[in-house]
Model the fold of this input.
Amino acid sequence: MTAQDALARHRLARAREALEEAALLAAGNKWNGALNRVYYAAFYAARALLALKRLDSSRHSGVIAMFQEHFVRTGAVPPDVARALPQAFARRQRVDYGDFAEAHGSEFQVLRDDVERFVGACEDVVTASDSPSG
Done:
């Protein structure tokens, strides 16, 4: 396993951990925190794929842009699945920085489902890169 593969797997593990944290927060009706953790799950998964190409950015918007360029435009991740990343980013920005912004359970559940699919698609790409033909 290459260093990039190991880093990608580490970042995917962080993504799964963030989803678990989101579930714990949701169980306590802490929707803003849960939505934050769902976004970070998508962010870590996107950075996992970027690691495969030795790419990264210090800015969240940079990660999103590079992910779109290298994985959505190339067809590695379907656009309908990939849209979860910028949507989660926008919602996280709203609840983390917006005065009086409150997430709701239904909003969280829809986004969580979309991000679960996104993380799964990223895991598929990393798994395919591990195969001899990948």
